[in-house]
Amino acid sequence: MKNAIKMMENNMSEDSVRRARMKAELESLSIRMSELREERDVKQSEMKNFRQSSVSKIESRKDMKISTILDYFDSLGMGVEISVYPRSGGKDSKQVLLRV
Which helix (H) or strand (E) covers residue 2, if one does? Predict the structure, then answer.
């Protein structure tokens, strides 16, 4: 699988590869959210402050507000940390932007 991805990336511009990777990360966010909920043995219908249909929509979104993410994980008894880092890989280290 890795070889197939590398072969496809070799035929793409750097910008296209960057956009494709970013899109894949956003797609995997909703999957990771539902996995974390399931690991905590919480059903969609058991989420505090959310209807089951709302949880289903959240877990299938590709783009969501930070406030929605905060509320979602707060309902699971979890906190959220958003970090920033230089893409260039320079000396600057990762910095926490938000920790709630």
Answer: helix 2-10
Along the chain (100 residues), what's the average pLDDT of each consecutive run of 10 residues? 79 87 84 94 95 94 90 96 85 86
pTM score, whole prediction: 0.76
The two tokens of residue 51 are 């209807």
**Rounded Cα–Cα distance for residues 26 and 67 (Å):** 16
Residue 80: helix, strand or coil by DSSP?
coil
Determine the residue type at 88. S
- Domain span at residue 89 reads 2-99
How is 3-22 classified by DSSP, letter by letter?
HHHHHHHHTS-HHHHHHHHH
